[in-house]
Design goal:
The chain is built from one helix and five strands. By secondary structure, it is mainly beta. A five-stranded mixed beta sheet has the order 2-1-5-3-4, with no helix packed on it. A hairpin with a 2-residue loop joins strand 3 and strand 4. The longest helix has 7 residues. The chain is globular and about 35 Å long. The mean pLDDT is about 95.
C-alpha cells in the first residue's frame, strides 16, 4: 500500500495496522508518537488502527541525547 510517511512517498509492504508499520520501520512503539491524517493515535490503539491507501502518517521518534 502506498502511504505518505513523514512527508515522503512510502510503499508499506506489511499488514495494515500502525503496529506493523512501526515494526517495518524498526521504530520502538513506546518511544514513537504517531499521527494519521492529522489525528493523534494513542499507543494503546497501535494494534487496532488500520491504515488505508494514501494515508498521511507522521512518526515522531523520541530519542535521548544532548
Amino acid at each position: 500500500m502506498d502511504l505518505v510517511l513523514n512527508g515522503e512517498a512510502y510503499r508499506h509492504t506489511g499488514q495494515t495496522t500502525i503496529a506493523e508499520l512501526l515494526r517495518e520501520c524498526r521504530a520502538e512503539p513506546r518511544r514513537t508518537a504517531v499521527m494519521v491524517n492529522g489525528d493523534i493515535v494513542r499507543k494503546r490503539d497501535f494494534d487496532t488502527v488500520r491504515l488505508a491507501e494514501g494515508d498521511h502518517v507522521e512518526l515522531i521518534m523520541i530519542t535521548a541525547g544532548g
